[in-house]
Every structure is written in C-alpha cells, then in structure tokens.
Amino acid sequence: MKPFSKFREQNTLIFFVVFLVDLAVILGGCLLSYWLYLDRWPLNDDYREAIAAAALLVLVVFWLFDVHQLWRRFGLLDELLRVLVAWAVVAGLLIVLSAMVKVTAVYSRVWMGLWIIFASIGLVVAHAALRRFLRFLGQRAWSQRPVVVVGSGDLGGRLMGRFGENDWTGFQIRGVVGAGAESLASEFEDMAHGGFDELESIVESTGCQEVWVALPLEEQHQLKRIMERLRDHTVTIRFVPDMTDLRLINHSITSIAGFPMLNITESPMTFPVNFVIKTIEDRVLSALILIFISPLLLLIAIGVKLSSRGPVFYRQERVGWNGRSFEMLKFRSMPVDAEQESGPRWASQDDNRPTRFGAFLRRTSLDELPQFFNVLKGDMSIVGPRPERPVFVERFKQEIPDYMQKHLVRAGITGWAQVNGWRGNTDLVKRIEYDLYYIENWSLWFDLKIILMTMMPGIIQKNAY
Q1: d(Cα 361, Cα 359) in Å, to the nearest integer?
Q2: Mean pLDDT score, 86-114
Q3: CA distance linking residue 195 with residue 176, whole number of Å
C-alpha cells in the first residue's frame, strides 16, 4: 500500500462519492440507533462529539484501507470484508478513545452495539450497490474514454485482450497503430489502422482522448518519435513498459534529483506511512499477546526445564530484513548438544533429535511463542517471510531465483506461505512465490487476514515438526 502515490492517482470524484456514502451510512446508523433506543431528539452534546470523532476516524482509517478504490481491484466478497474490517477498526478506536478520556459511562452500550450492527449492514448494502452502479457507468459508451494503442506485438495484443474482457474499466480501445497491425487476432481486425506515420490522422479520426504506447523493448526508441508527432494534440499519453519477463515488487514511478525513475524492486517499508503502520501493528499486538499468554509461557518454561538439562530458551542466528543477522528466540526443544555431531540440519518429520516435550512444542508451534519478544525488540514482525539460518540462506540464494527478495521486509512469526500450507519441509520455490506475493501486496488488512488465518486452523498444523 502506497497511500500518497495512490491518493494523487485516484479518481477524485469516485473517492469523494464512496467516502460520502460510507460516512452517510455510518452516521445514519448512529442516528437510527439513537432514535430507536434512546428515543430522544435532538442529539445532546456528548453524542454530537462522538459523531464528529467517528467522521474524522472514518476519513483516516478508510483512506488507509484504500476503501475508495476497492471496487476496481478486488472481488465483491474481499471488498466487503475489507470495508467491515475498516469499520471495526473505527469502532474499536472510538471505544478505546472513550475509555482513555473516561467518558464510557456517558454513552449507552446498547446504542453503540446497535450502531455497529446498523452501520455494518448499511456498508454491505451500500458497497454492493455502488459496485454495480460504478460498473454500470463504466460499461456505458457515453462514459468511456476512447483509446488508441500504439503497438501490435504480443504486449499490445495482451493489453487489448485484457481490456476487452474488462469493459467496466471506463476505457474503450478504438484503434491500433503499428507495424503488423493487420495481423492482429480476428477480434481486433476492425481496430487496425496502419503504421506510425498515420498516427496523427488516426487520433483525429477516432476522437481518442488517450494514446497508450505498448511497444516491445527493442522498439521503445520509437517513444520519442511518437511524442513528437502528438505534441500538437491534447491527448493523454501513457507508456506501458514491456516488463512481463521481470519479477516486479512494488513497482512504481519516482523522481530523484529531477530524474524520473521506474522502481522495479522496492520494499513497501520504504514509505514512511507503511513503516509507521507496520511498527505500531507489531509493537501493540505483540505486547498484548505477550500479556495474554504469559501464564502459558511460564508453564512451557517449566516443562522445558523438566524435560532436559539446559536453558529454557534457544537462541539461533537467523537472517532478517535487508540481509542482517539477528538472534531468534525459541523454546528449547532439543538437548543442548543435539547439533554437535550432525551440524545444522533442515527439520524433517523423522527428526529424532527433539525431546518428547520438545516434539510436542514443535508439533503445536508453541516453541515459536518467544519470538514475540523479537517483535517487540524490532528484529521481527508478527507477519512476514520466515527467516532462515545463514548457512541455508547462502545455499538457497544460489538455487532459488529471487530468494533474497524475501528480505525486503522484516521476517515474521507467521506468513502468507505458512497459512497456505508451505511450511516445514515443503517446496521452497512455492514458498518464495508466496513470500514475494505478500511483499508485493502488503497492507494492514493483509496482515490481519494472515493473523486470522493462522489462528483458525488451531495450534496443530500440517508440516509443523
């Protein structure tokens, strides 16, 4: 998630429409619950302050959750889940704020409960209706922006095919320009209009508002020539780089010292807002979890001490964010001299090194609980790619493409690969694919989703040993 760049690029009208609808639904739920339960009118000052605080929190939280443009990027179910989570965060913050200023006794708990229910139902109905309405508008010819595509190769063909399948985007391809345009697939034959020399006349005849340049790498020198031909026209020119064979992680455009640069691989934590959100998430949740599980930690520590001689905790060097090493904490599950003869080994199902109690800890993943102290310290996150030992990192980075890209974020206790079954002695290539997908699509919502998925199967999981 890159809030600043997205805020600049978003469709401003849609943003305000969606925000106003969400705000109206939430505040409407507040007023409805007040009228139904308290049966007093107008609102007193205390409830007006609650509404003002809710409006401010909705603006901030819903923006951070990217609620204004979910309809373009996700399916309906995923959109509704994200909206409800955003509303739950707002409601939770309101409750915390009222407790901090010691005014919880002023407000009715039944009123608050009804407000949460009415607003949740309203948000589901409103977003489902908005999605249908916005897609209806996008499919209408009078609301679509006509486009001419420059480039008839594989990249141009795939671009046109994608927009042909998604007619709700608000763009309509009316022409194709470039060498070989006549050899396009049959469904695009009527769009072929000739070569570069005819670009100006084609722009005028089609009445297009945008020109998309989608040329293969070997022809991208033509971009300057195309821009010169269109300098007397008011069309928007968009460049579609041919990077389909490259692994892109959080790719974006930036400017440094006046030079535009295409970011091909970039950590989502480069953006200060993302870094602050992730840090708050990790520190707050890990502190709460450690307080909650402290009795369990004490019981496990006693069990480890009674199972074999040695310390309760096991410190192991792992590689984390930016390739830096740190000492990861675990409950000791093996005798202290278990690796003296074998050396570092990959854990497997037939591993006979753990003690009986240690095998139980590994099977239930309870040996990982001390890593919440690593999260508090800042060495790890709750959610992120699992860290490996330096000896395995040196080996895997030679064997697995893009392996080191997993270190663009802090290592995690759980991760997208783990909740999808890729943990323990499983396919490392698939695991890295899931790790890189997480980095590319990181958001606060994605972290919360992974945490919930981690908790749902229970503590005993497949491939945990």
Answers
A1: 5
A2: 80
A3: 9
DSSP 322: G
From CA 289, how far away is CA 287, in angstroms rounded? 5
**Amino acid code (one letter) for 79:** E
- The class level of CATH for 144-245 reads alpha beta
**Residue 6 scores a pLDDT above 50:** no
Handedness of CA 443, 439, 81, 253 (dihedral sign): positive
Q: What angle do CA 263, 265, 270 make, to 5 degrees?
A: 80
Q: Are 407 and 457 in contact (CB under 8 A)?
A: no
List, for residues 426-442, the tens digit of each pLDDT value.
778 889 999 999 998 88
* CA angle at 393 for the pair 392 and 394, rounded to the nearest 5°: 90
Dihedral of alpha carbons 407, 411, 416, 419, sign: positive
Q: How are beta strands 325-331 and 313-319 bridged, if at all?
A: antiparallel
Cα angle 312, 316, 319 (rounded to 5 degrees) comes to: 150
The residues that bridge with 306 in the sheet, in sequence order, are: none
Write b or e for each residue in 354-369: b if 16 or more Cβ atoms lie within 10 A of its Cβ, otherwise e. Answer: bbebbbbbbbebbbbb
Instruction: Give the domain ranges of the chain.
Output: 3-139, 144-245, 272-337+345-455
Lowest-pLDDT range, 239-243, 388-392, 393-397? 239-243
